[in-house]
Amino acid sequence: MSNIEAFTSFKRKDAFKIYNLKSTHLSLINKTYTLIKKEALMELRNKYALAGLLLYVFSTIFVLYLALSNQGAAKNIEVKYWNVLFWIVILFASINTITKSFVHENSNRYLYYYSLISPVLIITSKLIYNVLLMLVISILSVTLFAVVLGTPIKNFPLFFVVMLLGSIAFSFLFTLLSSIASKAGNASLTAILGLPLMVILIMYLMRLSRECFFLEHSENLWINLSILCLFNFVLFVLSLILFPYLWRD
Amino acid sequence: MNKIFAQYWWKILGMVLLCCVFLGGLLLPLSPGILTVNPDTAQVGQQELLNIEGYNTEFLKATDDIKVWLKWKDHYILADDVKVLDNQHLQATVLLPYTLGEEDLSNQTMDIVVSDDCNGTISQRNALVIGVNNREPLDIKEKACNPPIIQKSTLFGFPYREILNESIRNLFFHVPMWFCMVSLLMFSFIAAIMYLMKGDIKYDIYSSAAAQAGLLFGTLGILTGMLWANYTWGAPWPNDPKLNGAAIAMMIYIAYAILRGSVNDPIRKAKISAVYNIFAYVIYIAFIFVYPRLTDSLHPGNGGNPAFSNYDLDSSMRLFFYPAVIAWTILGFWLVSLKIRYKFALQNFEESEN
Lengths: 249, 354
Description:
Largest sheet of chain A: none
Number of helices of chain A: 10
Shape of chain B: elongated
Helix content of chain B: 40-55%
Number of domains of chain B: 2
Strand content of chain A: under 5%
Number of helices of chain B: 8
Number of strands of chain B: 11
Radius of gyration of chain A: 19 Å
Strand order of the largest sheet of chain B: 2-11-10-4-5
Distance between the termini of chain A: 33 Å
Oligomer: heterodimer
Structural class of chain A: mainly alpha
Number of strands of chain A: 0
Order of helices and strands of chain A: HHHHHHHHHH
Distance between the termini of chain B: 28 Å
Largest interface: A-B, 30 and 30 residues
Order of helices and strands of chain B: HHEEEEEEEEEEEHHHHHH
């Protein structure tokens, strides 16, 4: 099966599942689950996109490693530089990952979904799917960082929480922007629209993840974590409110 | 909205206020202050002759004796003899004891306070560095001295502040420009919400015009702020959260302009730019609350710095500051109304052509 066919065709079984969404006896959770599964299936069917993403992460970190060892800095890299480099890699990986979340299906397909389900469900499923994908990418990146540059992380549970909150924030931020960009007909707009908005977000994440490199954490760690949670909640609510307006043509 | 935009009275009011702000804000003098003290070092156990140079002072007009104090912590030393040379220059003779309040005075810095009934009480902090004695020491006893009674200056002027000096006038330009930018972006945000609710294209025109004008005022605010920072903080771009936050706001609205430029269909352009406007504005406001938690700011009212209103914004500043805020905001909205008229005219022209 060629790349283009994978983009545009469903198997009959999947099409039937999607059609079932119209029926009222399915609960909202079931519907969302079906939509997330559909996203995952499409990602897996179109192996080139996934492989491209993985290659992107691999090659970025490998280039980073080569550049650092070229400068003689790869061994015992200072904690603060590790932190900065890690979040920069995650940032660009997230832009690359989420940019395509609305452009890989054509607009006629969306018209079909629109006749079946409410746009709120579609955006929710996209958000959740992107969070999961970003979490996978983050874990992969941290593993690669650990292999080539070592792990200065002391507090692993906290780092995982920060990484989770970061994945959620990035995917919530970029999903709506990628739908704006796809409506504008130019997928590369996602990065232009998103970068000014995430400057302070990434600084906040760096500040939080810096605490993972020490066993003792600062006194306002919990306030900072709850601010980040609140921030994610605001992004989620904004996406749910604004997406239905984008949807209609 | 269009009715208010078409009326003249508020534009005339704004321009009159703006003229007052430019003329008064730039031409009125500063209050008296102390410019330099020469020499800036003194030694304990000595009689020291200090040349004090005033700024905008009228020492000859003082009717009672001009008094000069040296201040360290809560202790004062009164100068024995003060000679007025001219309006700007004083000569004070001070005897410096070894101790003050039973504490050693060597290697301390002292403030200088000058007071009379015309110029009021003026002072300079850390004007004099007290060194250790290497001359023939005099036997000087510590004398208890009452602190000066604060007198108000009879000369009208903006407050004289060390470091700020004449640049305090920038308060009438820099700060109102930010107020104007914030109100324009707020207007743009509300118009974007109105567009999504009502679907009327005129709200989109309001929203985009206000965002453009806001971007202009933000740029002006950054430029005036950089000029000010260069003189008072020593660099045009110190790492300050408010500066960085302002730069981010500019980036967001440049991205907004790029988004609008990349879509041709007017309805689609209106819709997606309204969505981006709302999304970006809410996130930006959320950031502004979070960001100061990350670092301290050099701005007044942040990071332990006293706010302007505490002591700098006295009645003479208020007299020009509030009109300046109103005047610059009116100028901003006038700009928006012109932009809106232009866009409506363009739309009508295009429709008649088709």
